[in-house]
Each structure stands twice: as structure tokens, then as C-alpha cells.
Amino acid sequence: MGFNLYQLTAGFNEIFDLLEYEEAIDLAVLEDTLQSIEAAIEVKFGNVAKIIKTLEAEAKAYEAEAKRLSSKKSAAETRITWLKNYLLQSLEQTKKDKIATDIGTVRRQKNPGSVNVLDADKIPAEFYFTPVPVKQLLKQELLDKLKAGEKIAGAELKQGYHIRIQ
After folding, report:
1. Which of 43, 44, 96, 122 could join 154 in a cystine, given CB atoms 3.0 to 4.6 angstroms apart?
2. Tell me, what's the pLDDT at 9?
3. ∠ at Cα 144 (141, 147), nearest 5°?
4. Residue 30: what pLDDT?
5. What integer best gives the mean pLDDT of the chain?
6. Would 82 be classed as within a structural domain?
7. 29 falls in which pLDDT band (50, 70, 90)?
């Protein structure tokens, strides 16, 4: 039966304790025992090192595969965006808001309103949060006021569209 690395290390330490506290020890037997434990420890270390190398190689392969898949995902998302814009432009050119297809309805739908800052210097100070040392535009408050119909210098309500497939 083999010993694990913990047991071998403990045995190694017990022999050193014997050397320190026992006076009558057969040095030849002690040397043989130390050599056999050390050889077993070297084998165990070698095996653990092999496992580490294998896992490192696997991790590197996983990283390469993740990069490859990330690149494929990015390419697919780019194609999706292009195709949705293509459908949106086609709906706008045909002056239609929706078209029924065999897999569902393709419709042009309004995006939620967002703030389009034309000139940040013209926006009143009330729409800025000013922590020291940088002021920050409070876009949600600005958006709420613009949606309510208020005219605010330096900003306008922007309305876009996106494609929805149901």
C-alpha cells in the first residue's frame, strides 16, 4: 500500500525527531529509511507536478477556446445588429410598423426615451450632481423633465427604434 505525501512528510519528520531525542539509533537503518522515504516523496512530488502541468495545459487550452468562442459570439452579435438595422431601415422605407412572417411578427418599436446632450455647458446647474471635485450630469432627472415637455437649453429628447421579433 502506498503512502500519500502528507504521510510521507510526517514519517520524514518523525525520523528527524528520533535523531534529536534518541541516542541509540542504528545509523545504517536510519539512512536506508530516510532514502526510501525521500525517494517516495520525490515520486509523489513528481506526480503532483505532472498533474499541475496537465492542469496548466488544460487551463491554457480552455482560455484559447474561450477567446475563440468570444470572437465567434462577437461576430454573431455584429451580424445580428446589422440585420436588425437592415430590417428597421426596410420598415422605415416602406412606411410600415410591422410585418407578419411565418416565425412571428417583425415590428418597429420605439426605444425608451434617452437624453441627447447637445451642449453640456448650456444645461442648467440643477441637472448636475457636484461631488468634489467633479460635477456629474443627472441624466434621469433631465430625461424626466424633457419627457414632461419642458424645454431645457442644451438638451433634447431623443427617440430611436429597435427591432423586436415576437
Report:
1. 122
2. 74
3. 150
4. 67
5. 86
6. yes
7. low
Question: The dihedral of CA 52, 55, 57, 60: what is its sign?
Answer: negative
Q: Exposure of 127 by Cβ count < 10 A (0-12 exposed, 13-18 middle, 19+ buried)? A: buried
> For residue 14, is pLDDT > 90?
no
Cell of 53: 502541468
Mutual orientation of helices 27-93 and 5-21 as an angle, nearest 10°?
150
- Of 50, 68, 90, which one is at a domain's C-terminal end? 90
Residue 149 predicted with pLDDT over 70: yes
> Could you give the count of Cα atoms lying within 13 Å of 19 in the half-sphere of its Cβ?
13
Mean pLDDT of the 52-77 span = 95
19 in the same domain as 46: yes
96 pLDDT above the threshold of 60? yes
Under 8 Å between Cβ of 9 and 28: no
- Residue 137: phi and psi, rounded to 5, are -70, 130
Same-domain status, 38 and 66: yes
Q: Count the domains in the chain.
A: 2
